[in-house]
Amino acid sequence: MNKGLAGALIAAALAALAAGCASNRKEAQLKNPAPCPNIVVLQDAARLVDFAGGESLENIAWTAEIENVSLACRYVGDKPIDAEAEIDIAFGRGPKATDEKHRYAYWVAVTRTNREVIEKREFLVPVDFGGDGRVRRSRHKIDKIVIPRRAEETSGENFEVVVGLVVTPAQAIYNRSGKSLKFPDL
User: Fold this and answer.
1) 184 domain-assigned
2) Residues 4, 93: one domain?
3) What is the pTM for the complete model shown?
4) What is the per-residue pLDDT across 86-126, written as a single tens digit (0 to 9) for each?
5) Are 106 and 120 within 8 A, CB to CB?
6) Does 18 fall in a domain?
């Protein structure tokens, strides 16, 4: 390629890039008026231990634990808060599991901070442990969480995104008890 043609192509690319930046300059200067909502894991639903029999290590069929959560958001003017969340979950297959596959579920709720639930959605997660697999980890991305605001002055601090596993009342009581089978020899 000759040097004149290469220089013209580079100049055209730079001009197009600068024009693209100029069209987004106003939007790029707009900032969230306040922080994003907090994202938290409800401790009663942070993990799941499904026993097939008494509460002992040898009777565990299935387990799951939310390991990490994060939230990113964007809002300007009086528009709703657009957020996306990532949830890291570890799934386990215990000695009493009767299959190589299991379906787990988790939920995501938007609340007014320390008040009522605005919206709650459940997500099913089929997990294949394949053969001798005992633990599987996965990241779940929720691309669209829309949080309504009444006015431009309404901050993301007025809301929370709460995450939890779908657990039975007995499993929630077990979680609340503080018992742990992570380190059974301690």
Assistant:
1) no
2) no
3) 0.77
4) 999 999 999 999 999 999 999 999 999 888 999 999 999 99
5) no
6) yes
